[in-house]
# Entry
Amino acid sequence: MSDRPKVGKRWRGVTAIATYRGDGYVTKKYRASCDKCVARETKALVLLGSSAHSPDLIRVDGNSLDITYAGERATAANIPKDVEEQCQGFLDDMAKAGLVHRDIMPGNLLVLDGVLMVIDYGWCVPVEDVNQKAPGGLGDRFRSKDGFDDKYSLDKSIAHIKSGG
Ligand SMILES: Nc1ncnc2c1ncn2[C@@H]1O[C@H](COP(=O)(O)OP(=O)(O)OP(=O)(O)O)[C@@H](O)[C@H]1O
Ligand SMILES: [Mg+2]
# Structure
């Protein structure tokens, strides 16, 4: 895994930077002001511990999360053939955990060894809190006009990826 490229981006009005550490895990460091995101992401990754479609949480240290490497951005070239079944598997895991992601979009979908991985749980909440305060742009154009709906966002994101977007 040591030949994997560094992932993530520089601080530029963003809330977090993820960096590949070179030995199979990524450190996602949130800005100091984002402790609620850290708490939401930590809780979600713990609750999704047995899901094949989310990275594992290794360690939390202040505003830094160490999580397992979840692959490369999903593209028309690497999208798994059975992606629809895998999406359903992810939605089932979310339902079992009682969570709604709220920020599903192509940039948060990765592929690792043929498995669709969903990352970025900073705005993920228990289903009963689905309408809890969230940034207006959350979910981007993949968000349903009727509110947060992970299935809608996932279907729209996959269609976008398959069409080469
Ligand atoms: N576990 C991971 N494995 C591989 N790459 C990752 C992982 N976590 C994050 N990344 C990479 O880092 C990028 C940013 O991570 P993430 O989506 O979790 O943060 P973000 O909340 O979108 O950041 P921001 O709020 O700054 O936009 C992802 O788009 C992906 O390229
Ligand atoms: Mg993201």
Observations:
- Residues 7-8, 14-16, 18, 26, 28, 55, 67, 69-70, 107-108, 110, 119-120, 122 surround adenosine-5'-triphosphate (ligand 1) (CB under 6 Å).
- The beta strands are 16-20, 25-30, 57-61, 64-68, 72-73, 99-100, 109-112, 115-118, 125-126.
